[in-house]
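SUBJECT: A protein chain and its fold
Encoding: whole-number codes for local backbone shapes
RECORD BEGINS BELOW THIS LINE
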Amino acid sequence: MERVKGFHLLPGIPELVAEIVQREDKVSDSRKASKFYRLDRTNAKKCFLYYYQLRSNISHRGKGVRNEYDRLHASLTELLQITERYLEILAVDEQKLNNSPQLP
């Protein structure tokens, strides 16, 4: 969970989340139904907490995963796109570093 809490701090991630996430949703905590986690494209931290809670709910509910198929599919698609784009940005940044003049 600690790693998840820091994803939104990575450079460029909030912008990627805002660009890629095009839906709104919420999931409740399987242990406390009154607590919700919202998918909010304007808040990357909330998005990653939403994804983590969805993962937790599926892990703890077991057979109830059938009811979560569409939500899980959309979330995995978003996470894949965010990850791919972030890796592309890192590759470009690394290429720029490798091509920059070296200081003596």
Remarks:
- The longest strand covers residues 25-28.
- The first helix runs from residue 2 to 6.
